[in-house]
Design goal:
420 residues, mainly alpha, 71% helix, transmembrane helix
């Protein structure tokens, strides 16, 4: 059975033009993934190195063994929501065991062929879930944007509110907020500048914002908090410690469900963007993501999922095969080994600005307006799913959304039947 999940040589580009296309797609994705991996590593309560390690190891394993040729995996904002309370309560030492347990659950889902079932999550619920994630990512960036420690609380909105109150009491860090504003301005204006001057080569807006703002900080000697030391090492084995195995079982289950759902949704979106006739294999994708989470978690990273933003960039960059995702991991590995001292000088306010911009992209206001203009049942489902995701948690948001979708669908069906 496991051999059906193994990669096949025909799934990788073999002609020079296709390999070249995959290389440049991987390079583009790596540039986009670098600040995101660092940002989500810091936000999760671990470290920038942990986020970078996850992008490298999980990205490579999922590319080799996953079921989608466009999927790019790594740390995501959704995963940080589950990891933050675990890290706060049990510390970073719990991550290897947590990731091993979660990864095994995802692999079992693949073995029992649950991928097709999970892949049928209603699109309205997906929209609401995505909106909720975008809001949570935004709230998580407030401590970095304000340049202070996180406020007390478990839920993202409580932490954000308490952080703002602490900032007011301590005095607002105007330098940090200014850097956030400049980062967002460059991120959203750079594509317009590129089109206006018709640049020959595409440079991702996130990378350009990161580079320019970091240079501004260095040139003008602005005193702000930076990422700090990033070890020039990747893949150091961390022995899983199962002291809190019963306490970690529920978070591991939530992580497994999130990894499965988010990865399958991401692969579905990537296929749609690429107009693929041959769709991804859901169960094989679960197998690859399970291996990715195990590998990343026990070698200095954290649980991972397929990343919609990075997978979308991969498609838009004209990736031809899963070789593009492999190149993305290898390029990030080169950055970690060679350019770690330079990366450590990036201000955390820049990371906050980039992730705020990313959350806005994920939010997609035009798509929300369009969804709200559809049927009442779909609009209600989307709003309730989004609210539940932020107010309770991601998994309960999905459960409530799916249940509401089924209930409202039946109610409106009965109304139509009576009217006829």
């Amino acid at each position: 059975m496991f051999f059906s999940f193994w990669p096949h040589k025909e799934e990788f580009s073999r002609t020079p033009p296709d390999i070249t296309s995959d290389f440049f797609a991987g390079l583009t994705v790596a540039i986009v993934a670098l600040p995101l991996a660092i940002g989500f590593g810091i936000t999760s309560g671990l470290s920038a190195a942990s986020g970078l390690t996850t992008a490298i190891i999980a990205g490579l394993l999922a590319a080799l063994f996953g079921g989608s040729k466009y999927q790019v995996s790594g740390p995501t904002g959704a995963m940080t929501v589950i990891l933050i309370p675990v890290v706060n309560k049990y510390g970073a030492s719990a991550i290897p065991a947590l990731g091993l347990m979660a990864g095994m659950i995802v692999i079992l889902m693949a073995v029992f062929k649950l991928g097709g079932f999970i892949n049928r999550v209603p699109w309205t619920v997906v929209e609401g879930f995505t909106v909720g994630i975008a809001v949570i990512i935004s709230l998580q960036q407030i401590p970095l944007a304000l340049g202070i420690a996180k406020g007390k609380g478990e839920k993202s909105f409580n932490v954000a509110w308490n952080t703002i109150k602490d900032a007011i009491n301590l005095g607002v860090n105007s330098k940090s907020l200014l850097l956030v504003a400049i980062t967002i301005l460059i991120k959203f204006s750079w594509p317009l500048i590129g089109r206006r001057f018709k640049f020959k080569h595409h440079i991702p807006a996130s990378f350009m914002a990161l580079l320019l703002v970091t240079l501004i900080v260095k040139i003008f000697s602005i005193e702000v908090i930076t990422i700090g030391n990033i070890p020039r090492s990747v893949g150091i084995y961390q022995r899983p410690i199962f002291e809190n195995i019963t306490s970690l079982l529920v978070p591991a289950l939530w992580i497994a469900l999130l990894a499965a759902v988010e990865s399958l949704l991401s692969a579905r979106v990537a296929d749609g963007m690429a107009h693929e006739k041959k769709h991804f294999e859901p169960n094989r994708e679960l197998f690859g993501q399970g291996l990715a989470t195990i590998g990343a978690s026990i070698f200095g990273g954290m649980p991972a999922t397929g990343a919609i933003a990075r997978s979308s960039v991969n498609v838009r960059s004209r990736a031809k095969s899963r070789l593009a995702s492999i190149f993305h991991s290898l390029i990030l590995l080169g950055i970690a080994l060679i350019a770690a001292p330079l990366v450590s000088q990036i201000p955390t306010a820049v990371i906050a600005g980039l992730l705020l911009g990313t959350s806005y992209r994920i939010l997609n206001p035009a798509s929300i307006v369009e969804s709200l203009r559809t049927t009442k049942s779909e609009a209600i489902t989307m709003v309730v799913t989004a609210f539940s995701t932020v107010a309770i948690d991601l998994i309960w948001g999905l459960v409530i959304g799916i249940t509401l979708h089924l209930v409202l669908g039946q109610v409106f069906k009965n109304k139509l039947w009576k009217c006829s």
